[in-house]
Amino acid sequence: MNSHWFFEDVNLFNILCPHKFKTYKKAHVFNYYSKKDYIYFEDDSASKVYLIEKGKVKIGYYNESGDEVIIAILTKGELFGEKAILGDNIRDEFAQSIEKETSICPISVQTMFDLMRDNQTFSFKVYKFLGFKFKKMERRLKLLLFKDTKTRLLEFLEDLCGEYGHDCEKTGDKVIEHPYTQKDIASLIGTSRPTLNIMMNELKEENVIDFSRKEIRILKKIA
């Protein structure tokens, strides 16, 4: 499932972004962030949801030891801060820009409710989309808690293939054209970049994968 701008037959940005509507257009602005700028912190008031127009945002929290735990890295067209729609008043995670230029479309919870009220079919699809996203995050947290590093990487690649993969007609390989850096992937599976690099090269030597900066090829089925 590729969530960039679309889920099912709905253009998420065209429907949700307030600047598309005369009622909201005049007062609507985009917010711009530099690398390492925070969109919100843990314990901040949750009064908005956000769409990424450009750039990349990481979502995470700090555990009891003060270590950062990354639960998602989101790119163009993806939605975050969505727990506000479900009634959360306080953030239980942070959101931080991780690119030099990130453009965010903020949507107040009330505006979101108004837009969803006016289109029941779309409202159902929003909740379906949120359910999919929560299941994905729950799976990622279970991987971090209960699986060893190599298993986390292999299962992450399976998920990545489901989101960004397509078949290569000539070779039969699964080709994954993804938006993540090695640093992003290392953060998402809870390891260091050097360790990730070692594991990726081991999988390459085993003819499981081949990879370049923005592409990973699954050469045989991951057990």
UniProtKB/TrEMBL annotation:
Keywords from the UniProt entry? DNA-binding, Transcription, Transcription regulation
One Pfam family hit: cNMP_binding
The source's superkingdom equals: Bacteria
Query: For this UniProt entry, what's an example GO CC term?
Result: cytosol
Q: Name one GO molecular function term.
A: DNA binding
Domain HTH crp-type residues, every copy: 147-222
Under InterPro entries, the record lists:
cNMP-bd_dom, cNMP-bd_dom_sf, Env_Response_Regulators, HTH_CRP, RmlC-like_jellyroll, WH-like_DNA-bd_sf, WH_DNA-bd_sf
UniProt-listed PROSITE patterns: CNMP_BINDING_3, HTH_CRP_2
Q: Which residues form the Cyclic nucleotide-binding domain?
A: 12-91
Supply the Gene3D superfamilies for this chain.
Jelly Rolls, Winged helix-like DNA-binding domain superfamily/Winged helix DNA-binding domain
Q: What is this protein called?
A: Crp/Fnr family transcriptional regulator
